[in-house]
Design goal:
By secondary structure, the chain is of the alpha/beta class. The protein has 14 helices and 9 strands. The strands form 2 sheets. A 6-stranded mixed sheet has the order 1-2-3-4-6-9, with helices on both faces. Strands 5-7-8 form a 3-stranded mixed sheet.
């Protein structure tokens, strides 16, 4: 079997037609680091090259599916990163190239000739929801959560899958609020195919996977191509390109820079708590003034003991 650092992939012990791709950074809630997107793609390619495999189940080790990008260390530091450029002016194409590459890696789940099923327990949030929604089908525990909280500040889902999977009205609701929904709601809204009590998640997922696995590979590939073509004709690739550009802007506009300065001064947890609380987020000139104050304190060497603003 392939040897990866962020995930594992193998054939299911009881049914070789089912491949199990397990995101495997449980100590970090399977957070996405620089290696994971490319390893997802390599794992999908491995499964597609094996004629025994008919369907791929994607899941997370430990307490949940995936908590999004591993941002604590980068958000709190002043280290230069394609997605967190400290120099001015920032280079949007450097940011775009990095995130578009990740998007293409995640989309290997969607382009895979073999159907993919996301099995979600705990949470699939922020970038973790990108991985889940790039899969063809979604099976969730009733109490699992899915959403993209960084739409409130510092993020835009680059795969743009929410609209295509959920429709514009529901997608707007989640993108405007940054709210998460549970598995029951996801099934009611048509985002998840199945939602079951957590204790039944494995059985429900494997029942679906094994039902699909009985279909010839060619039949599965043909039907997937036809359905995917509908989304491509609707403009999925163009939506993803625009979303990836917007994602970079959210991290480098006044609001995004305020969020980063707050994380650097008070910790990422404090910045996230502000973001998710519903408390108004500083913007425009207010954000610029708070950025100036934070940079002045950093320059003078005085630590921040109070919340900015």
């Amino acid at each position: 079997m392939p040897n990866f650092t962020t995930l594992t992939i193998s054939k299911d012990a009881s049914n070789a037609r089912v491949a199990r791709l397990v995101l495997n950074r449980p100590e970090r809630f399977n957070a996405i680091n620089d290696d994971m997107p490319g390893e997802i793609r390599a794992a999908v390619e491995w499964a597609n090259a094996d004629d025994d495999v008919h369907v791929i189940v994607v899941e997370g080790a430990g307490r949940g599916f995936c908590g999004g990008y591993d941002l604590v260390s980068t958000a709190e530091s002043h280290i230069e990163h394609p997605c967190q450029q400290e120099k001015t002016p920032w280079d949007p194409m450097v940011d775009y190239a990095y995130m578009k590459r990740n998007t293409e890696h995640f989309m290997s789940l969607w382009h895979s000739a073999k159907p993919t099923i996301a099995k979600v327990h705990g949470a699939a949030v922020a970038g973790g929801s990108d991985i889940a929604l790039c899969c063809d089908l979604l099976v969730m525990a009733d109490d699992a959560r899915i959403g993209y909280m960084p739409t409130r500040v510092w993020g835009c889902p680059t795969t743009a899958m929410w609209t295509y999977r959920l429709g514009p009205t529901r997608a707007k609701q989640l993108m405007f609020t940054g709210d998460v929904i549970d598995g029951r709601t996801a099934a009611e809204w048509g985002l998840a195919n199945i939602a079951v009590p957590a204790a039944e998640l494995e059985a429900a997922t494997m029942k679906l996977a094994e039902r699909i696995a009985g279909v010839p590979r060619g039949q599965l590939a043909m039907h997937k191509l036809v359905i995917n073509q509908v989304l491509q004709t609707m403009g999925l690739e163009q939506s993803q390109s625009l979303a990836t550009i917007m994602d970079g802007i959210t991290r480098h506009n006044p609001e995004g820079l305020w969020f980063r300065r707050h994380a650097q001064e008070h910790g990422f947890k404090s910045a996230v708590q502000w973001r998710d609380s519903g408390r108004p987020i500083p913007e425009g000139d207010e954000a610029r003034e708070l950025i100036r104050q934070a940079e002045s304190r950093a320059g003078s060497g005085s630590g921040g003991g109070k919340d900015a603003g």
